[in-house]
């Protein structure tokens, strides 16, 4: 017996959209031996500078246990440094190294060029509408306080 659904599979569509966009980004990441997760960490650090690991986890959407391994590999590869927060020794602060920031700038340029192409293809208004709808969906699905 099959079940008839009224609505399209939104999670699958969102994953398909993500994969379609990432198909343009991954080759550049792989050229620099970066995983998707490592790029998300570098992007967070490129946008915000030195931040605590909790913020990296939240903004890069990487669970704590996975983040530990990702950061260890990135530190080994001289992409980031980790240090105890002088104000709170329980917290660890992560910062991109000069090498890591060089990659953020280099990859950021090609990624921004792809976003410019999407904006030209879809139109500025449609891309802004897409961003707005995604922001609304994210807010709608947040747990109530």
Structure description:
- With 145 residues, the protein is mainly alpha-helical.
- It has a single domain (34-141), classed as Arc Repressor Mutant, subunit A (Orthogonal Bundle), CATH 1.10.10.10.
- It has helices at 10-31, 36-48, 53-60, 64-76, 98-122, 124-140; strands spanning 51-52, 80-85, 88-96.
- It has a three-stranded antiparallel beta sheet with strand order 1-3-2.
- Strand 2 (80-85) and strand 3 (88-96) form a beta hairpin.
- The radius of gyration is 18 Å and the shape is globular.
- The protein starts with 9 loop residues before the first helix and ends in a 5-residue tail after the last helix.
- The mean pLDDT is 94.
Give the topology, please:
Layout: H1 10-31, H2 36-48, E1 51-52, H3 53-60, H4 64-76, E2 80-85, E3 88-96, H5 98-122, H6 124-140
Antiparallel strand pairs: 1-3, 2-3
Helix pairs in contact: 1-5, 2-3, 2-5, 5-6
Q: What's the helix-strand series? A: HHEHHEEHH
Strand order of the largest sheet: 1-3-2
Q: Can you tell me the overall shape?
A: globular
What distance separates the N and C termini?
A: 40 Å
For the record, what is the CATH homologous superfamily label? Winged helix-like DNA-binding domain superfamily/Winged helix DNA-binding domain
The number of helices is 6
How many domain units? Answer: 1
The chain-level structural class is mainly alpha
Radius of gyration: 18 Å
CATH class: Mainly Alpha
Question: How many DSSP E strands?
Answer: 3
Determine the strand fraction and express it as a percent band: 5-15%
List unreliable stretches of 5+ residues: none
CATH architecture: Orthogonal Bundle
Largest sheet: 3 strands, antiparallel
Helical content stands at 55-70%
Provide the residue-averaged pLDDT. Answer: 94
According to CATH, what is the topology?
Answer: Arc Repressor Mutant, subunit A
